[in-house]
């Protein structure tokens, strides 16, 4: 894979993430909107998730063309097919390495991680694309490894309390 191919892969996965979290009605209502409504303070939690969804739909329109909603089912099938192929190619490129270009992370690793980690860890009611990602153990290990290396407070370990942080 060349740099341009990685860029296309990231772009495709981004479109799939938008579709998965913001367009798929079941995922949006039961996961995305609910999560943001719980995380955003009152009264903003009543209207910001809808505004955020509108922005994501505009982004998808920008990258897929104005008529993307004319045949949303066809778009979903095409995105899913291309996305699965893309993940499989990324998995093959990663192979048994820890990072895409060797033993230390590069900007590509950060980009791919940012697109895959949320998808991998979300509890989605409709997770077709997520299931394909979970079927690729090296990509799952890639995300898990980065989470444990660079975000060790996520998971079982709780964040330090403000009172525990030394003040200078």
UniProtKB/TrEMBL annotation:
SUPFAM superfamilies attached here? Answer: GST C-terminal domain-like (SSF47616)
Which residues are in the Mitochondrial outer membrane transport complex Sam37/metaxin N-terminal domain?
14-53
Residue ranges of the Metaxin glutathione S-transferase domain?
85-146
Q: Which Pfam families match?
A: GST_C_6, Tom37
Q: Reply yes or no: does the keyword Transmembrane apply.
A: yes
- What is the annotated role of this protein in its UniProt record? Involved in transport of proteins into the mitochondrion. Essential for embryonic development.
Quaternary context: Interacts with MTX2/metaxin-2. Associates with the mitochondrial contact site and cristae organizing system (MICOS) complex, composed of at least MICOS10/MIC10, CHCHD3/MIC19, CHCHD6/MIC25, APOOL/MIC27, IMMT/MIC60, APOO/MIC23/MIC26 and QIL1/MIC13. This complex was also known under the names MINOS or MitOS complex. The MICOS complex associates with mitochondrial outer membrane proteins SAMM50, MTX1 and MTX2 (together described as components of the mitochondrial outer membrane sorting assembly machinery (SAM) complex) and DNAJC11, mitochondrial inner membrane protein TMEM11 and with HSPA9.
| Name of the protein in question | Metaxin-1
Source organism: Thamnophis sirtalis
Coding gene?
A: LOC106542588
């Amino acid at each position: 894979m060349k740099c341009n191919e990685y860029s296309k892969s990231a772009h495709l996965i981004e479109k799939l993430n938008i579709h998965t979290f913001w367009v798929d009605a079941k995922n949006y209502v039961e996961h995305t909107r609910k999560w943001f409504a719980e995380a955003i303070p009152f009264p903003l939690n009543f209207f910001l998730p809808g505004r955020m969804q509108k922005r994501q739909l505009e982004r998808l329109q920008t990258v897929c063309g104005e008529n993307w909603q004319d045949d949303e089912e066809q778009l979903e099938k095409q995105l899913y097919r291309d996305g699965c192929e893309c993940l499989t190619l990324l998995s093959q490129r990663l192979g048994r390495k820890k990072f895409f270009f060797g033993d230390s992370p590069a900007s590509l690793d950060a980009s791919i991680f940012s697109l895959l980690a949320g998808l991998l860890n979300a509890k989605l009611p409709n997770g077709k694309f997520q299931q394909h990602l979970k079927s690729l153990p090296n990509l799952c290990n890639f995300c898990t490894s980065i989470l444990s290396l660079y975000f060790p407070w996520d998971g079982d370990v709780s964040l330090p309390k403000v009172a525990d942080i030394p003040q200078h």
